[in-house]
Amino acid sequence: MASKELPASGDEYIHDEEETMECAGLQTRGGWTTFPFITVSALGLSIASAGWTTNLIVYLIQKFNIKNIHATEISNVVNGCTSFFPIVGAIIADSFMGNFFVILGSSILSLLGLVLLTLTATLDSLRPKDCKEDLETCEAPSQFQLAILFSAITLVSIGMGGTRFTLATMGADQFDKTKEQGTFFNWYFFTLYLATVIGITAIVYIEDNVSWGLGYILCLVINTIGLTIFVCGKRYYRHIKPRGSPFTSLARVIVATIRKKKMVVSSESKDYYHGCMDGTMFNTIISPTSSFRYELDKS
């Protein structure tokens, strides 16, 4: 970030009033108070996600009479989408809506998807008849049945992609110190992997050996609990204001860099600042260098 103009005394920086107030406001919420809400929410949402994704191929083959190759293709598309959607969710959260509302909306979509998925497992009219061993061909699912199934898969995929890593980002935003953020990430990913283990063992066992309907009902209930706990912590969260599209900011940096390529900047690191802590701006930028053709710190 470009250096701010120094006052006559040279001892203090002149900061934008809104920016300073925002830094001070960050201290009123957040901290370890939010930790149980975020981690328990992550636990519930991740168990539900692992419960339906891990066994999806088996469900498509056994209950919808879809051929092995096509079931695998569908599963691959789902895995690809759940890996891509976090990028989209991160852009929307950082640019427009904020982490809280992205997580809230994604969790609701996941909940709606699990409702439809549970209905396909419990209502005979929403899936084709089971194959019989003495028949060479099986009844194919109708267009309506496939529409309900794919709608359910789409909703839960979007929900899974929008919550998994956005929750981690929101959790890190609750802390100022790097050490505390590192501790949070350790516990968060421990919770994430623990939830995955529970989902691919306990939930999958119930789906394979007891009932698909019961397994999906458990996923639905656990997702609901996770969403409820997340919403209950709203009053304690630190909400970071969205900064607008990152692409707009990048474009501005490039334009400003070109326009100011002949500008002379200070070589003192004290003339640069970045971030805030305890309500004041703090310096984390070293002296600029001329390593690049255009010095980006002029922007």
UniProtKB/TrEMBL annotation:
Domain of life of the native organism: Eukaryota
InterPro entries membership: MFS_trans_sf, POT_fam, PTR2_symporter_CS
Gene3D superfamilies cross-referenced by the UniProt entry: MFS general substrate transporter like domains (1.20.1250.20)
Lipid bilayer topology: Multi-pass membrane protein
Positions of transmembrane segments: 35-61, 100-123, 143-163, 184-206, 212-233
KW Flavoprotein (keyword) present: no
PROSITE patterns xrefs: PTR2_1
Name of protein: NRT1/ PTR FAMILY 2.7-like
Organism: Thalictrum thalictroides (Rue-anemone)
